[in-house]
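LOG
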Amino acid sequence: MTRPMPTVLLLAAFLLVPLPARSASTPTALPTPPVSKALTNPIRPVIRRGTIRINLETLATGLTAPVWGITAPGAPGRLFVVDQPGTLWAVDVVTGAKSVFLDVSLRLVTLGIFGPGSFDERGFLGVAFAPDYQTSGLLYTYTSEPVNGAADFSTIPPAETADHQSVVAEWHVPNPSDSASVVDPGSRRELVRIDKPQFNHNAGALTFGPDGRLYISLGDGGGADDSDGETFISGEPLGGPIVTSGHGLNGNGQNTGVVLGKILRIDPLGSNSANGKYGIPADNPFVGQAGFLGEIFAYGLRNPFRFSFDTLTGAIYAGDVGQNEIEEVDVITSGGNYGWRYKEGRFFFGSNGALAGYVSKVNPGVPAGLIDPVAEYDHSEGLAVIGGFVYRGTRIPRLVGHYVLGDFARTFAADGRLFYLRGRELVQGTRIRGSSIAEFRILNQTALNLALLGFGQDASGEVYVLGNGGGVPFGTTGVILRIAPQS
């Protein structure tokens, strides 16, 4: 029997609140609001239950830590679910029967930052099927792998080693029209390998847009405050504290010469990238601009763990996990700068020497043009936003056009929450509206009673809730629940 991870350490690992003191001499060129203006209760209104009532139908059980669920083009009867320890499940959306479609577990770093049974943000994090999957048989994965040679992108200082490498790879299914055909394990082709400074803030979402391009979300590199020199976590069996590096003077989120803290847009079948393994579309917003990587679609993000396209409008919704105070939902636009680490949500972010960072309403030195979220909440409501999907199903007419999202856990006791944005159709052409947040009313339940890990969406636009009983990538309590009407 494994020893459970201490709650205070587990909480700090996820929230990334600094534990020991950070060096006060850490250089920074970013303007920071005065500590005297720090807010202790940045968002006073609380999230209340809305008027939309739902039921949660169990589709499948016995998973470990499901984090993402999508369909493949031409295969509407199955939901392909990413299980963090390394399994891609093919799940029948009628019967719930599941089978292994791909196993990448042997490629992953050893999970459990404090040993077996403990928390981790690394693993198998994303999958996307090519738009022409029925003819090409191609799909793409995002995995956390051991350091294996030089990375294509790195922020690691000389003589230091990355915690792991984030890898996007291509795979092939020999006969996509045959439900018995699975991924050929020998077909793997690596597209890009990225050094990750710390174990956390990996983002990891992959999805093809309506334009046929592959979009990839990357966190800021991990640690806390997107800055170097901070001792942000310690515990067994690591043998000592982790001190952040690989973030540079101003952090990775605002550094347009690195891929961390960004959403990238690539052509997997192209070859004009620096490594020759993928293409950089000519219509990417920063192609040819000095100081910008051509792969960047949007930047200034901390940990956009999940993002998705609205299947009707094509709008991109992302849940960007916050630092110490604010969780946010962004509508991502081409070339947008979403503020981190100038800002956390709509508030200005300040480092605080040996203490935790803070937010303020005042900071005159921040540049103009930063894009604020369409929705936000503070840590009195939860710990980490989990982005979902705009509902486009037919079973709950009142939910159509609303963005479904949630929070990992309120107190780290398998008490995740299910939310939706009160506003419908937030994106109308070039006009983007903000919205408040409501909590679902769940039939015969006062709470979700799970750690919320992700969402899924099937070919009919119905949305699924993915979670488990412990919030860690171990065990067999992982479930897939379908959001359904109460009657």
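LOG (cont.) second protein
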Amino acid sequence: MTDEIDNLPLWQPNPNTVGATGMALFMQATGYGRYTDLWQWSVEQPEMFWSTLWDFCAAVGGKGDHILIDGDKMPGARWFPESRLNYAENLLKDRSDGEALVFWGEDKVKRRLSRTELHAEVARFQQFLIASGVTQGDRVAGLLPNLPETLIAMLATVSLGAIWSSASPDFGVDGVLDRFGQITPKVLVCVDGYWYNGKAVDCRQKNAGIVAQMPSLLKTVVVPYLDAHPPLAGLANAVPWTDLSTVERQKEVLFRRVAFDHPLFILFSSGTTGVPKCIVHSHGGVLLQHLKEHQLHSDVRPGDRLFYFTTCGWMMWNWLASGLASGATLLLYDGSPFAVRGKILFDYAAAEKMTHFGTSAKFIDASTKLRLTPGKTHDLTALRAIFSTGSPLSPEGFDWVYREIKQDILLASVSGGTDIVSCFVLGNPVLPVYRGEIQSRGLGMAVDVFNDAGQPVRCEKGELVCRKPFPAMPIGFWNDPEGANIGRHTSSVSPMPGATAIFRR
């Protein structure tokens, strides 16, 4: 979306390969030849669309006979009221020996886990949680970098029907307490420190200060990152991650299937207008929305290698984690995106044959200023898509990607937010890419742009809104049983003011 509409696309789908994309296959399965018509059907017939999507993406669980109750209420609509499923079961359904994840901690640490190994690690941590008294509805919090242990702890937590919440270890003590203090977790998983731009950052004193002010904690688990055997002094009921092997190992993860709208994640608003709001997202809503965005809009296929540069305090971490449900290998990274003379992420992309590279508009802008030329310095043959979010991608950012990275690539500028832990508008492998524009509205998302009078507009600025309910709407706020904050904070308005409506297709 931009004030100027360029008539010539920067990229167009290859007619010889576009038919193999998830979006094209879904269009074929539903009988639609144009994306505009498919999108219109998806918002006018939401019950049929979301039910069809469940089947097409092979979601694991019981769908039930009814899809939507009170579909005219926003908020208030109830999706798949008879469904029983578990988010973690969908992410761990593949038990093959293929790679589940690769991790780079700058140029300091590299690790790999197969899907079989990931399943075993989740089972091990699940047994620890059970032994620690964690049950359905309890909260487990992670103050962690984007490590394999973070993914393991999250999957073990939600497999039990407990609720996961995470924050980045670069937050201050007050910032962490403002968030986790509201949700009273039983277990905190933290790290001894992390690397940033080649320097070690010690977190032990911060951890002690946080734990001392969280009386709800029964256990604190410390993940070693800087030190193989970090000291635990000052941490009440602390257990090193490496000692969890003493807990009885169980080959199979136990999956507790829960209601579609059972709490899965608690994410936090920025806190710019007071204490951060605790936004609660559901098992079914997150799963279906992410399956749709990965398999259809991002064309993530089994065996693809999916990367997003993110901390665990940003919703893109949750979005990245869901890639396991579509058969992707997750490429995890922790540290500065400009480590090793600004080239570390492109080193990673080349070495691991990355297929999908997710980043921010600020990273692309900074790479432009650094005059990086990754298309010349790195083998990016495997790369098929680049995602940009966090802020609007400038027309010059589009130019840099197609000039200095690759001409034959889908560049998807996307916008959504923590409120929906997903996207309102995003990429599309069957549509062209135009300079400075977002490609399309998401399927099932009744997105429009309104002026100040609440009227839809085209080719002028307005507020991006979503007019109808969808499954990934948050189910509420923690400690808000009367729903007092729903109307004020869980609105249909996206964090993208000043959008210019184009909607070419």
